[in-house]
């Protein structure tokens, strides 16, 4: 299941950019020919995010063209 490796990379990239701020949501753009199963990504995301600033964040999917697979954006919690 390559989705676990992909999900670990997503968590690592977003966590690096988020710094110490908690992440609320991550949106991925996935094309029909990306050879990625969104359900498998969703399952792996919860496991990969445990103990990170992404713990509890939602994972959303956007339709893309071709074989596109990218982190579209992410939402951070507001600083109090």
From TrEMBL:
GO terms for molecular function: nickel cation binding; zinc ion binding. The keyword Zinc applies. Keywords: Metal-binding, Nickel, Zinc. Pfam families: HypA. The keyword Ubl conjugation does not apply. It comes from the Bacteria. GO terms for biological process: protein maturation. Gene3D superfamilies: 3.30.2320.50. This is Hydrogenase nickel incorporation protein HypA/HybF. The lineage of its organism: Bacteria, Pseudomonadati, Pseudomonadota, Alphaproteobacteria, Rhodospirillales.
